[in-house]
Write a structure and sequence with these properties.
The complex is a heterodimer of chains A (384) and B (326).
Chain A (H helix, E strand, L loop, with lengths): L1 H16 L1 H23 L7 E7 L4 H15 L3 E5 L3 H10 L4 E5 L12 E4 L4 H28 L6 H12 L5 H8 L6 H17 L1 H4 L1 H8 L1 H7 L4 H31 L6 H25 L3 H19 L9 H7 L3 H13 L4 H30 L2
Parallel strand pairs in A: 1-2, 1-3
Antiparallel strand pairs in A: 3-4
Helix pairs in contact in A: 1-12, 2-8, 2-12, 3-6, 5-6, 8-12, 8-13, 8-14, 8-16, 12-13, 12-17, 13-14, 13-16, 13-17, 14-16, 16-17
Chain B lengths: L2 H5 L11 E10 L2 E11 L4 E5 L6 H8 L7 E6 L2 E2 L5 H4 L2 E4 L11 H11 L4 H14 L15 H10 L8 E5 L7 H16 L3 E6 L2 H7 L2 E6 L2 E7 H7 L4 E9 L1 H9 L4 E6 L3 E6 L2 H14 L2 E9 L3 H9 L6
Classes of the chains: A mainly alpha (384), B alpha/beta (326).
The complex binds adenosine-5'-diphosphate and magnesium ion.
Magnesium ion binds next to helix 2 of chain B.
């Protein structure tokens, strides 16, 4: 163990002294994330859906619906502004000031055909969709009462009937799916997404500096010297893997802190982010080590690792958001990158450690399989 | 004493020897590189493995330091069996590999501190010892510079220093002077002599006869993986017997000249080089006219003639029929 720490300390010191290693580990991913986020991202941050409501009815049923919106606003799921004129509401939606406007027609509480009109902002399709399903759910709920009342009495302006509807409307709770979609949009904001994508993409280059130096030591003769010393052969390999893990973990930690501080990225619950980051480092180390174990020279290892890092990064969706293409999204689960970004998405939707456990487990699975193959193969390489 | 007796393993069991090797054998892809090598080294003794490139010296050393498993044979360091995992045995050895094996991106001082720590020294002791060794190998002035910026000779000295850090009982140097300027080379040879004077056993491989001559108490002559003879220098030169060593500086058709010389009855060994011919002759003084006649008869011109007492070079020529240098 002592030899492992001494050797890993030596390797880390060499890496920190090596400018290109620090560039690849921290400087380049940070700079790229910053550039991409600035070019493509604007100032978009996750925010509640912005709704407006126009109440042309002014009856108790309409009031109940506005009340539903207010309760959602209290939970920061939506914002609501009251607008007197439907034309003004449409203008706000068209101009992008709000995501959608609800127009509550006169007679909503009594008229058998009245429906809530939703005017959506075309640039906020999700928010408009959510608004429509909310309105539809509300109206559906009332329809059942209305049908029952019509069967019983028949007089539309019967005060008892209006009272029954109002009472029903007041008890309305938005369907879980609506709240779920709006509150937990499992999508990272642009800044965080670029920060995370660049961080995990370059991680697969950063960890190479540990394992691949084993090949360099073999070529440079220092491996022979180490093995002639009272140093157990296993200690050399362990030190190399440890170097990868430590270097990868510290670069990722620096990137997370730096993008949070200087880019406004919001990674999510710290403990859960740490678990995801740790698992990603292990997976990257395992994958890289397998490649190193197959290569004959350090150059060969470097180029194979670069190709694999590109391929996995692309499949894992670090270059473009793959959420909208289901086939690509499915493929991304075959990569640690996909799990890492997916896990962070859970966190953006308000998840905590428990929600990211599947992603952590998947990445640890990658690490275990690739790590085992690499150790079996590299043990032979370390044995002279 | 016959060659067979000299080349046979010593009859002593080797107890008390710092290093004892018995019947070492190693082949690479079915080709024998080392074949039945046995020798002992006692405390304070300097033992030289002398042989041309490709003779198997590095292969022997790699097995001795425990980084190459032998196909057959037994290695003991201070009585401890050497294996890949024999950490106790390994801690007795200071190893100076043939290729420079230091970290070019660490300074000379950092390299030595690192290796001292790996040899088990505590941090403070490692720091102090690194300074001492830097002094010994004459690198104190450049200790803070990256090893990659050192000249070839300085890197060689650092490479050697790394083998001295833990005051080993046995120092193993594999051709430590290859590619070194004459001054550094002298310094290295002096260091080895001094260490040996302090009781360190030394195993030294070289293809330079002069180094073996200058350093070694005993020499093993290795050729094509076999130890063809071993003993003190006096014992070895006695093998050549009454022969004289003749060095002819010559130009022209040296190959034909060599063939002509082989036909002379008194010639025992012959090696044709680029600028002359070396040969062993049972009575050079009498045979010299015949030798010169044979050479010029074959179309070569003799420029100089040197007659010498037999040395290790002559022993090699005598035993293998070839010259050490080529
Ligand atoms: N790793 C190896 N693989 C195959 N052949 C080798 C290897 N190392 C050495 N040899 C061969 O073994 C023989 C002895 O080599 P070596 O021990 O390096 O000789 P020396 O050190 O005396 O020059 C040579 O013929 C060499 O080509
Ligand atoms: Mg050699």
């Amino acid at each position: 163990m002592r030899a492992v720490l001494i050797l890993a300390g030596k390797d880390l010191r060499l890496r920190l002294r090596d400018r290109s290693a620090v560039l690849i580990a921290v400087v380049i991913p940070f700079t790229l994330a910053l550039i991409f986020a600035t070019v493509f991202g604007g100032n978009e941050t996750p925010r509640p859906f912005a709704y407006a409501v126009t109440d042309l009815d002014r009856g108790p049923v309409a009031a109940a619906f506005v009340d539903v919106l207010d309760r959602l606003a209290e939970r920061d799921i939506v914002t609501v502004r009251r607008v007197a004129d439907p034309a003004e509401a449409a203008e706000l939606a068209d101009g992008g000031t709000i995501d959608a406007a609800f127009v509550l027609p006169a007679g909503i509480g009594t008229d058998g055909t009245a429906a809530i009109e939703v005017i959506g902002n075309v640039n906020a399709p999700t928010a408009a969709d959510v608004a429509r399903s909310l309105a539809a759910a509300f109206v559906d709920d009332l329809t059942s009462v209305r049908v029952a009342a019509v069967a019983a009495a028949g007089e539309p302006h019967d005060p008892r009937r209006i009272a029954a509807l109002a009472e029903r409307a007041a008890r309305f709770t938005p369907p879980v799916s609506v709240v779920d979609v709006s509150a937990q949009r499992r999508i990272l904001d642009t800044r965080t997404w670029f920060a995370a994508a660049m961080a995990v993409f370059f991680l697969f280059f950063t960890v190479q500096f540990g394992v691949s130096s084993l090949i360099e030591e073999r070529a440079g003769g220092t491996l022979g010297r180490l093995l002639a010393m009272p140093v157990p052969p296993g200690a050399v390999l362990t030190a190399k893997l440890l170097t990868s893990v430590l270097f990868g973990a510290s670069s990722l930690a620096v990137l997370i802190v730096a993008t949070t501080a200087f880019m406004g990225a919001s990674w999510g619950a710290p403990l859960a982010v740490a678990a995801l980051a740790g698992a990603a480092v292990l997976a990257a180390t395992g994958v890289t080590a397998v490649v190193a174990s197959l290569a004959r020279t350090a150059e060969q290892a470097g180029s194979w690792q670069a190709v694999l890092a590109m391929l996995l990064g692309m499949l894992g969706g670090v270059f473009f958001p793959i959420e909208r293409v289901p086939a690509l999204k499915a493929l991304s689960w075959a990569t640690p990158h996909g799990w890492f970004l997916g896990g962070l998405g859970e966190l953006a939707g308000g998840g905590s450690l428990r929600e990211v456990l599947p992603a952590v487990a998947a990445m640890c699975g990658f690490a275990a399989v690739t790590g085992a193959v690499a150790v079996v193969r590299l043990r032979k390489a370390v044995r002279p | 004493m016959t060659l067979r007796q000299l080349a046979a393993p010593p009859t002593s069991t080797g107890t008390g020897a710092v290093l004892s090797c018995r019947g070492l054998r190693k082949s690479y892809d079915g080709r024998l590189a080392v074949d039945g090598v046995s020798f002992d080294i006692g405390k304070g003794e300097t033992y030289g493995l002398l042989g041309p490139n490709g003779a198997g010296k590095t292969t022997v050393i790699s097995m001795v330091v425990g980084i190459l498993p032998p196909d057959a044979g037994d290695i003991r360091v201070a009585g401890l069996p050497m294996t890949l995992r024999a950490l106790a045995a390994k801690s007795r050895i200071g190893y100076v590999p043939q290729e420079i094996a230091v970290y070019p991106d660490l300074t000379g001082r950092e390299n030595l501190r690192l290796f001292a720590r790996l040899y088990g020294l505590r941090a403070a002791a490692a720091r102090a010892r690194a300074e001492e060794v830097l002094e010994v190998v004459g690198l104190s002035g450049r200790a803070g510079d990256r090893a990659g910026t050192y000249s070839g000779g300085m890197q060689r000295r650092l490479n050697i220093g790394a083998g001295l850090l833990h005051r080993p009982d046995l120092l193993i140097l594999d051709e430590p002077t290859v590619g070194v300027d004459p001054q550094s080379r002298n310094a290295i040879l002096d260091d080895v002599t001094a260490l040996s004077g302090r009781g360190v056993a030394v195993l030294y491989t070289t293809h330079y006869m002069e180094e073996a001559h200058r350093l070694c108490d005993r020499v093993g002559i290795i050729d094509a993986g076999r130890l063809v003879a071993q003993g003190t220098q006096r014992e070895l030169t006695a093998l050549v017997g009454q022969c004289d060593r003749v060095r002819l500086g010559a130009t022209g058709d040296l190959a034909s000249a060599g063939e002509a010389l082989e036909r002379l009855g008194s010639v025992r060994g012959i090696a044709v080089g680029a600028d002359g011919i070396e040969l062993l002759d049972t009575d050079a003084r009498t045979a010299l006219p015949a030798i010169l006649a044979a050479v010029s008869g074959a179309g070569a011109t003799v420029r100089s003639v040197t007659l010498e007492e037999p040395d290790l070079e002559a022993v090699f020529l005598h035993l293998t029929g070839r010259s050490l240098r080529d």
